[in-house]
């Protein structure tokens, strides 16, 4: 019923930029797409929140990425973006997209995850 597909990861040198995309596909009984977010998980570490955006456009960021990363969403295209600038080796991780969706007919809300995209920052 809900599918999130990330793309845009890759290998980049320190100081470089990448833009991640998360395309949302839904079928049938979705009442609303609510908050969306980007998370990351580095080897041997727990998954952590990177950035989030509400359906009205309010954003929040982890302290470690403030001023470097920008989250945005295009509701018409059902797509969420993460623009990453001034990348550092410590940004290396698998990046995941997560979305909150409310379903008909009982207006139950569930979270869904994408499969992840690898970002490697290295010279």
Structure notes:
The protein is mostly beta strands. Helix content is 0%, strand content 59%. The protein contains no helices and eleven strands. The radius of gyration is 15 Å and the shape is elongated. The mean pLDDT is 95.
Supply database-style keywords:
123 residues, elongated, mainly beta, four-stranded antiparallel beta sheet
Query: Unreliable stretches, pLDDT < 50, 5 or more residues?
Result: none
Class computed from helices, strands and strand pairing: mainly beta
Q: Could you describe the largest sheet, including whether it forms a barrel?
A: 7 strands, mixed
- How many H/I helical runs? 0
- In helices, the fraction of residues equals under 10%
Give me the count of strands. Answer: 11
Order of helices and strands: EEEEEEEEEEE
